[in-house]
């Protein structure tokens, strides 16, 4: 087991400085959580992956995963559950780019969130669109050796382990899709239940 830290805790700090500081604090791994203005999708290139891998290795750390579910990477309306097909396609494109970037970084895990329930969407339709979108992403991830972990977050459609278990039931045999359990978010959910 290695102690890891999510880079979103260092918002506004260049990613290389954040890695250096985390290494000095004794962390052994980092969850890269891209944020616009710090390390957004526009910088997901093979050259940037090589540079980042070198910085992490020089800090004697590893990259445990790429978290592509941060709000602000793409508008909330571009969710896997969006009603408009073009909006769902935009999210799928972002996730597929994250899968490619994770592979270039040398990590085998991409974390996501469900996003909020779209306005004017029925629960049943939202479930269907979420499952369909995750299946498309899993099909893309499988030959690249990447797994997907969904993180429940308060105020999102998948907000607790209970919704995740329902998602897992609906997904069936997709072993590439698992749970990213953020114990801090779990406590937030318990606190409001």
Features:
193 residues; alpha/beta; TIM Barrel; six-stranded parallel beta sheet; 6 helices; 44% helix; disordered C terminus
What does this structure look like?
The chain is an alpha/beta fold. It has one domain (4-192): TIM Barrel (Alpha-Beta Barrel). It contains six helices and six strands; from the N terminus they run E-H-E-H-E-H-E-H-E-H-E-H. The protein has a six-stranded parallel sheet, covered by helices on one side. Helix 4 (123-141) links the parallel strand 4 (109-112) and strand 5. The longest helix is centred in the middle third of the chain and has 21 residues, at 85-105. The two termini are 31 Å apart. Mean pLDDT is 88; it is low at 189-193.
Uncertain regions spanning at least 5 consecutive residues: 189-193
Number of strands: 6
Look at the structure and give the CATH class: Alpha Beta
Under the CATH scheme, the architecture is: Alpha-Beta Barrel
**Which topology does CATH recognise?**
TIM Barrel
Rg over CA atoms, rounded to whole Å, is: 16 Å
Cα-to-Cα separation, first versus last residue: 31 Å
- CATH homologous superfamily annotation: Divalent-metal-dependent TIM barrel enzymes
Q: Pairing-aware structural class of the strands and helices? A: alpha/beta
- When the domains are counted, the total is 1
Quaternary structure classification: single chain
Instruction: Spell the H/E element sequence.
Output: EHEHEHEHEHEH
In what order do the strands lie side by side in the largest sheet?
Answer: 1-2-3-4-5-6
Mean pLDDT across residues: 88
> What is the number of helical segments per DSSP (H or I, 4+ residues)?
6
Rough outline: globular
Share of helical residues = 40-55%
Strand content: 5-15%
Taking the sheet with the most strands, its summary is: 6 strands, parallel
């Amino acid at each position: 087991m290695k102690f890891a830290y999510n880079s979103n805790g260092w918002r506004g700090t260049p990613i290389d400085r954040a890695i250096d500081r985390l290494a000095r604090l004794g962390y052994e791994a980092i969850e890269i959580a891209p944020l616009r203005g710090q390390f957004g999708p526009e910088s997901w290139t093979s050259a940037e992956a090589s540079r980042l891998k070198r910085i992490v290795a020089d800090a004697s750390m590893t990259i445990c995963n790429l978290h592509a579910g941060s709000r602000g990477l793409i508008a909330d309306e571009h969710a896997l559950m969006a009603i408009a097909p073009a909006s769902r396609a935009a999210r799928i494109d972002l996730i597929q780019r994250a899968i490619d970037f994770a592979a270039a970084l040398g990590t085998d895990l991409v974390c996501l969130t469900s996003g909020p329930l779209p306005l004017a969407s029925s629960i049943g339709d939202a479930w269907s669109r979420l499952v369909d979108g995750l299946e498309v992403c899993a099909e893309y991830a499988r030959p690249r050796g990447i797994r997907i972990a969904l993180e429940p977050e308060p105020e999102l459609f998948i907000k607790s382990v209970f919704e995740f278990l329902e998602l897992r039931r609906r997904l069936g045999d997709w072993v590439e899709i698992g749970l990213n359990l953020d114990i801090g978010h779990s406590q937030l959910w318990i606190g409001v239940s």
